[in-house]
Design goal:
Blueprint (H helix, E strand, L loop, with lengths): L2 H27 L2 H27 L12 H31 L6 H23 L6 H30 L4 H28 L9 H9 L6 E9 L5 E8 L5 H16 L3 E9 L4 H4 L3 E2 L10 E5 L1
Parallel strand pairs: 2-3
Antiparallel strand pairs: 1-2, 1-4, 3-5
Helix pairs in contact: 1-2, 1-4, 2-3, 2-5, 2-6, 3-6, 4-5, 5-6
């Protein structure tokens, strides 16, 4: 198992353990802010779990049943969990409103020490993950989540100190509102991204026009159409396209195909299916055409997979 995998699993176990501790401390101290932060910690545990799945799936080859591999299993899990987190946030909002109407005494010392522990834990995980797979998008996403939770823990520390010196207990439900908003923001982002992947939409961070323009600038490419870009998993992108070139033998067109794949790798697209064609076809005449030079289209040609 890659080193990043062990770091993720250990971080996941530590985060889940701290979440349980925070729930207990929140109930015993009557701190809704701690309970809200426990929900935020759960989102971080989800991010760590998805990153761990990504590392595991990355080492698992496709088989005869799952020819694309298992990348979307984590995407489906992300969608279901994010939907659950939004429901949890609604409960937190309701409880915060109730606390504002009917204030309850809060044990600020428990709030403070649990939040300090959370800050140290999340900061340690951020440092450990940052030293790992720097180019792994899953790990980067986990780092962002954990850094956000460290900020949440810092907010609770400030709130506990404010309650201790001012006695204003409504600081606790106000912090709960803020943390619940963080949870909703994170969950909606996960839902939006997972739905985009499941619906095979354009991957985040990739601009279609730039991809088309880069392909069109390659010497020998006359026209591009029936182009599709989608994600196989959270960070694995694929492309298929028909490309019009001059009539030539496959051995002569190999350099064009190589150059196309080199350009697409620069966009993070490593799984490609390029179909070279030499004469007009139906697809280029029915509106599925993306102009890339000359006004030509085609019928059928040779298909190349990368």
């Amino acid at each position: 198992m890659p080193a990043a995998g062990w770091v993720l699993y250990c971080s996941l176990a530590a985060t889940l353990g701290f979440t349980a501790l925070e729930i207990y401390a929140g109930l015993s101290s009557h701190s809704l802010a701690l309970l809200s932060d426990a929900g935020h910690n759960f989102t971080d545990a989800l991010a760590l779990l998805l990153a761990a799945i990504g590392v595991y799936v990355g080492t698992k080859p496709a088989d005869q049943q799952k020819t694309y591999g298992y990348g979307r299993a984590g995407v489906i899990t992300a969608f279901l969990n994010a939907a659950t987190l939004i429901a949890i946030s609604l409960v937190i909002f309701w409880e915060a409103i109730t606390r504002l109407i009917h204030p309850e005494p809060v044990n600020d010392r428990v709030m403070l020490w649990v939040a300090v522990l959370g800050l140290l834990l999340n900061a340690s995980i951020v440092v450990a993950l940052s030293r790992g797979e720097r180019n792994d998008l899953n790990v980067k996403a986990a780092v962002v989540h954990m850094a956000g939770d460290a900020v949440g823990a810092l907010a609770i520390i400030v709130g506990a100190i404010a309650i201790h010196y001012t006695g204003l207990t409504y600081v606790d439900p106000i912090l709960s509102f803020i943390l619940a908003i963080f949870i909703v923001y994170t969950a909606i982002d996960i839902i939006r991204e997972s739905l985009n992947i499941l619906l095979e939409g354009l991957p985040r961070g990739i601009e279609l026009n730039k991809v088309i323009s880069a392909m069109a600038d390659i010497e020998g490419v006359l026209d591009i159409h029936d182009l599709h870009i989608w994600s196989l998993g959270s960070s694995t992108h694929a492309l298929s396209s028909h490309v019009l070139i001059d009539d030539m033998p496959p051995s002569a067109s190999e350099c064009i195909l190589k150059r196309i794949n080199e350009v697409l790798c620069g966009f993070g697209i490593h799984h490609t299916t390029i179909q070279f064609e030499h004469v007009p076809c139906v697809l280029s005449d029915n509106g599925c055409r993306m102009q890339a030079g000359h006004a030509h289209s085609h019928e059928s040609g040779s298909e190349h997979r990368h």
